[in-house]
Specification:
Elements: E1 2-5, E2 8-11, H1 15-31, H2 38-49, H3 53-64, H4 71-82, H5 86-131, H6 135-185, H7 195-208, E3 215-222, H8 225-232, H9 234-251, E4 257-262, E5 265-271, H10 275-291, E6 293-295, E7 302-305, E8 308-314, H11 321-337, E9 343-345, E10 348-349
Parallel strand pairs: 8-9
Antiparallel strand pairs: 1-2, 3-5, 3-8, 4-5, 6-7, 9-10
Helix pairs in contact: 1-2, 2-3, 2-4, 3-4, 5-6, 8-9, 9-10
Length: 351
């Protein structure tokens, strides 16, 4: 599975999975006349792994239109989909922030010079007033004081305006950063959390959990998803994944975390949720998906019944991340071995 650390991707697939990706990638690269350099291999690794829906969509468009996948296009794909598109956003925000700081520093410096000069002028004016009794001289000096005061007021107003503008621009950048952070933890195809966010949340929960504050983990997998892709194409398969994600978002609790675990596997982390409640939610998701009959939009052809299998595990005080995932995964595969389209709870069959 793919995640991101800073802007660089990391991968946690097993050696066997990586070997399979290699066997799939190289023939595709040769078929499309792609040089087997590290950047291109990273692109096609993501493509065959099934974890990068947006990349797959863009590559499929290039292939179907029989466009040459040039080195320039490969670099664009890599920057956009592999090396985290938020790089350019952060670079843009960093440049804008530096411009704001430079402009504000210059404005403050200029205002400081004017205030300092006004202070010198006031001191000089005070000395003149102490040495003269001539009414005309006094009027002249007071006129200068009024002019200096107006200049200071104008300087203060300009500085306030500059600082207000800087504050507004900083607020805009805070909003941009929020969007970038959202993009960095969101799966581009389904809109669920991505694997990186899933791992981080699970680690945090295990660090915080205790015997009285437990959570459940549900791992769901679409049954016979390869048949959908083979029969109707990957675009329809992607739409099915988005539909499942929508059902999950609708039926889980507000404090639950739904993620795309990898490929056609989804997961839900359920804080403060015991097995019985986790089973109820997982069953609601399963039955809702089973009841609906999806159709292709172009010709109305039925895709057929979509079903999913799920496994549930509940955190125990001695658990590591790997242990709770392994138990949920074991329950999931038991659901598949028992005929699919069912939910299994840690060695207990859910009818």
């Amino acid at each position: 599975m793919t995640g991101f650390t800073s802007f660089l991707p990391f991968y946690d697939a097993t050696p066997e999975e990586n070997a399979g990706f290699l066997r799939q990638s190289l023939p595709l690269m040769m078929k499309n006349n792609i040089s087997t350099d590290p950047i291109n291999y990273a692109i096609w690794y993501e493509y065959v792994s099934g974890n990068n829906g947006k990349l797959k969509e863009d590559l499929d468009k290039l292939i179907s239109s029989k466009q040459d996948i040039t080195s320039e296009k490969s670099i664009d794909l890599y920057k956009k989909h592999v090396c985290n598109a938020s790089v350019e956003s952060f670079e843009k925000i960093n440049t804008e922030l530096q411009n704001i700081l430079d402009d504000t520093t210059q404005s403050v410096s200029l205002a400081g010079e004017k205030v300092s000069k006004a202070g010198d002028n006031f001191q000089e004016t005070s000395n003149i007033l102490q040495k003269t009794d001539n009414i005309e001289d006094i009027k002249s000096v007071l006129s200068q004081v009024v002019a200096e005061t107006k200049l200071l007021a104008e300087t203060s107003h300009n500085l306030k305006s500059k600082l207000d503008d800087a504050n507004n621009e900083m607020e805009e950048m805070r909003n941009e950063l929020t969007q970038v952070r959202e993009a960095a933890i969101t799966d581009g195809l389904t809109g669920l959390l991505n694997r990186r966010a899933f791992d981080n949340i699970l680690h945090d929960l295990i660090d915080q959990s205790s015997s009285t504050n437990r959570f459940s983990l549900v791992i769901l997998d679409l049954d016979y998803f390869k048949k959908i892709n083979d029969s109707f194409g990957h675009l329809v398969g992607d739409k099915v994944l988005r539909y499942i994600a929508g059902v999950m978002k609708q039926l889980i609790a507000e404090d639950h975390f739904a993620a795309r675990y990898g490929g056609e596997e989804m997961a839900v982390i359920m804080p403060n949720t015991e097995l019985e409640k986790a089973l109820e939610i997982a069953e609601n998701i399963r039955t809702t998906v089973e009841k609906n009959r999806l159709k292709r939009k172009d010709d109305g052809e039925s895709i057929g019944k979509i079903t999913l299998s799920a496994g549930i595990a509940c955190f125990e005080p001695q658990d590591t991340v790997e242990m709770v995932i392994e138990r949920a995964d074991t329950a999931l595969y038991k659901a598949k071995d028992n005929g699919r389209n069912q939910v299994i709870v840690e060695n207990v069959k859910a009818d």
